[in-house]
Design goal:
Layout lengths: L2 E7 L8 E8 L2 E8 L5 E7 L2 H13 L9 E4 L2 E4 L3
Length: 84
């Protein structure tokens, strides 16, 4: 079963919304990026090692258009700001 380890959200809605997920799978790690909300466009990257997956996660957080990079880490019902 897949386990969502982290979920980052850029605090925007509609077409400007971005979500980035770090997921532990039975086979390794997945980084999933979504643009435009739940019905938006997705891209997935698969990795054997957590460290490499986290590098991709950071890259995805850092390469969004300016003004759409106000990231928050979603944790249950809590939201934590991204520490840069």
């Amino acid at each position: 079963m897949d386990e969502r380890v982290e979920h980052w959200f850029n605090r925007r809605y509609g077409i400007a919304r971005r979500d980035v997920y770090l997921i532990r799978t039975p086979m390794g790690w997945q980084v999933l990026g979504r643009e435009g909300g739940s019905e938006g466009r997705e891209v997935a990257h698969y990795f054997d090692e957590e460290g490499v997956a986290r590098q991709m996660l950071r890259r995805m957080l850092e390469t969004v258009p300016s003004g759409q990079d106000n990231w928050a880490l979603m944790s249950g019902n809590a939201v934590r700001d991204r520490e840069t």
